[in-house]
Amino acid sequence: MGLSALAGCGEGAFAPNGDRVFAPGVAGASDIDGLIVGHRLMAAGEYELALQAYLRAAGQQGLNVDTLSALGSANLKLGRLNQAEQLLRRAVEEDPAFAAAWNNLGVILMERGKVAEASQVFRRAFATDNGNSDEIRDNLRLALAKLENPSNTGLQENEPFQLVRRGTGDFVLLSTL
Description:
Layout: H1 2-5, H2 34-43, H3 47-61, H4 65-77, H5 81-94, H6 99-111, H7 115-128, H8 134-148, H9 154-158, E1 162-166, E2 171-176
Antiparallel strand pairs: 1-2
Helix pairs in contact: 2-3, 2-4, 3-4, 4-5, 4-6, 5-6, 6-7, 7-8
């Protein structure tokens, strides 16, 4: 058993021509999409790991609207509301037609107690999405109810706001707050 572990350690084992030390090269680019990995980790409740996957995706793809939105959503779940808000504001500036980013920005604004602005952001998400997402519609409905009756503090506990992400043309619920 001990000999098999040392099988490649003989003289010249790492030297292709026998006179210099040879080390393997750097691994090539990964075929794994960091956004997909991050989305799966978010669904599993592993927000810190999802953030790391999204950072890898941003390193590979750059800070585009998808990576900005994903980073913002992970930061929201980690309670880093300032960072999350900044990232999602950048995402909607880059792509004003990205309904999921508008929705997730609205969730952050609700968390921060900015109900009036959140209601407007949810309206924008709903209009951008043409009313096709049940999650965005529910978030808008909850925000408007909260705006009309701010003293109703039990509203969020009974019906939490929902994060959504951009998929292949549809919206997928990541998780509830």
